[in-house]
Amino acid sequence: MELVVQDLSVARGGLPVLSGVSFSVSQGQALVLRGPNGIGKTTLLRTLAGLQPALSGNISLDREAMAYAAHIDGIKSTLTVEENLNFWADVFELNEIEHAIACFELGSLRSRPAGLLSAGQKRRLGLARLLVTGRPVWILDEPTVSLDQAAVALFGAAVKAHLAQGGLAIMATHIDLGLEEALPLELGQFRARSTLADNFDEAFL
Amino acid sequence: MMALLRRDLTLAVRAGGGFGLGLSFFLIVVVLVPFGVGPETALLGRIAPGILWVAALLACLLSLDRIFSLDFEDGSLDLLATSPLPLEGVVASKAVAHWLATGLPLVIAAPVFALLMSLPQEGYGPIVLSLLLGTPALSVIGAFGAALTVGIKRGGLLLSLLVLPLYVPTLIFGAEVARRGVEGQGYGPPLLMLAGISFAALALLPFASAAVLRVNLR
Amino acid sequence: MASIWEYANPLKFMRTTERLLPVVAVAAAVCLIGGLIWGFFFTPDDFRQGSTVKIFYIHVPSAMMAINIWGMMLVTSLIWLVRRHHVSALAARAAAPIGAVMTVIALFTGAVWGQPMWGTWWAWDPRLTSFLILFLFYLGYMALWAAIENDDTAADLTSVLCLVGSVFALLSRYAVNFWNQGLHQGASLSLDKEENVADVFWYPALVAIAGFVLLFVALVIVRTNTEIRARRTRALLARERLG
Prior knowledge:
The complex is a heterotrimer. By secondary structure, chain A is of the alpha/beta class.
């Protein structure tokens, strides 16, 4: 399995922010997106996850292959940790949550309502959700926000294990996870440029 | 989709808001009306079908913005949109969950409220029947309105403005069934229309709602 | 062969319509003034309604426009959804307030006419009720446009609302007819205007209707071009922020 992205252009709020993005990630590799705030990391990741259409370009894998995790985790505070995971496991038609609970050390928290978790614990639960999707490509948007060092290590290990099983990961993060499989991709080179013209077209630019 | 339905119902039970709130609101309206129009039994009985229907409609409206906005805010909607579930199915099961949490309790409690409104004996069957067939349409149409306004902060008022005109046909046919029942006339045609609206809305509107949700998520 | 879709280009649309605008505006003024003066001063009073019948020359055209403008919005919304021409979406946006005003004019003149005719400003007659509901649809449509910041998102959402709303508006029209027959016996209050109108009243009415249509076209041109410029400004500002 290989994810090949060719000449992808993405837009935020109707304005192209990145254009000509091309890269390829193969099995067992992780791609780390780099670039200043506002460059379009989140937009690119949402486009890859199939949440918004690309302006142009190709993504070789179907959106069905992608598991997406963003800044917010989609956790219901009145459900317990176990119920939260079970729900997503049901949605993704997987019936196994023990592996996910073990990976992120949530065993002692399993029957606690998610509303009572600390920010870092919530984040762990949110990331554990990736394991119950059973999807090969992880798309991670700032996955380490509010994680402490130990939890970052847990997360790093989970990503490593995922890659070792033949998975892929694309992430936007500023923290070094200690992954030797990680390839950096500087997004600054793809910043969309257009010239101001009096003769504006359909897109008003 | 069953998982989603189960989760939404669990959430409605645990967080309150669902079952309790709609019913309490319904009760309050029914209590307030006699204060407004006077305690005369004949008058109350005459306006009861309309009042019960308008109260049911408003009780339904009250919880509409929760259908998607909570899931939108905590990111669940993004995750559901990337999940194997078709978004149309997500919309439909959320609308069904909303109906089970708001509409169905109203249907079941309607005879009690009808008693408070001194609805004549003949009206009980038609009012329950009309609410049973009509409230699903309220939930499905409401889900469309909720999908339209999901990205808007404090969209509650806008949601009402968008949804209430769409409720007009349902309200007209629903109240007509109950009124005809009270007057002892045949209520077949409006009942069929009501059922038609409900089923057509359930079959078609989720497509529009899902399209609108996709636009709001991008 | 020139295609009609050429005018989907904002610049081409603006250049062409702004050349047309003076012609349309003058024609609208001529038709409106001519039709209304003809109708008000040079037609006989109705034998039953007296001079009150003359509000007909405003009431009927505005009522027709109120419905047809929604129809025009439906068409432009569909064009936007299918072909993604921004001008089309902006034209729908530009038309909505005009339609709402036409609905208000129709309702207001109807009330003014209804008072001497039926002895009441307002009755829950099917037609009156339908227009009130139509007005609510216009309000919701405009409010949705106003509430959303992103232009493309707003265009998409309002277009779908327009589509769904059209279905429900038709359904409401039918439901209202049904509902009212449950209350009244027959349509005693509604007027079958076209049938009992003699030619002498009808010709000035046609001129007035043409005037209203032309007025609408002129207003839509002005408003659409304003929307295009505003849209262009927003796009430029947004890009400047991006740097």
